Please model this.
Amino acid sequence: MAGVNCSSFCERLDERLHTDAYADLDASANGLQVGPDGPAEADPDIDHAAFAVDAAVETAERAAEVGADVLVVHHGLFWGEFERATGSTYDRLAPFFENDLALYVSHLPLDGHPEIGNAAGLAAAIGLQDREPFGTLGPEHIGLQGHATDGFAPDELHDRLATECSPEQGVQHLDFGSEVIEDIAIATGSAADWLDEAVAAGADAFVTGEGKQAVYHETREAGVHVYLAGHYATETFGVRSLQSLVEEWGVETTFIDCPTGL
Model:
């Protein structure tokens, strides 16, 4: 169905992603962050949608260059209360207004979705079975855990993650666990705080995007494996899944790859 209007485009995504369920849990202003939200006559068609991990001047300008009507991202522009469009905030907003480009954002809803989320995409890429929610956040979840039927040797899982995520900085492995890895918990991006939950769930390995100093000692003391596969790299899965979904609506799409090396 080509030419879906902006309000319908956002409503479909909100419904598919269960956006409302995260309203009180997420600092991100999920849904339509920039664009028309008024009378029907001001509701433009979405014929071309661009997808990226981050909303930034570069991704907005590249979306405009390919003629996109909307940029769909995981990391948006507004977090918490918004008061002024000045300085760097003005600079980031300007390409959207100058090019009549809307911005749709899905942060935690896209992390936790069991089918099209970031963790779901990574879990599928490494072949995990019997997947179930992981990463408790209030009544919701931000990740998945699953079982590797044939198991992984530690180096084998490292190499598989390097292939599937392709982080510019490589995959960092904290190697303190068993010789065979079968049960794996995944929470993408910056989710090191869920290591304890992974251990409590009986995971042999915990996969996330980036770590922090204390994770080394916590991992060693827990006797598990932790793989840090890149914040950006582990969070391309969700927006690519959304891209595939939107293509089914008859909308032209473009993925904008803008890796940060982090």
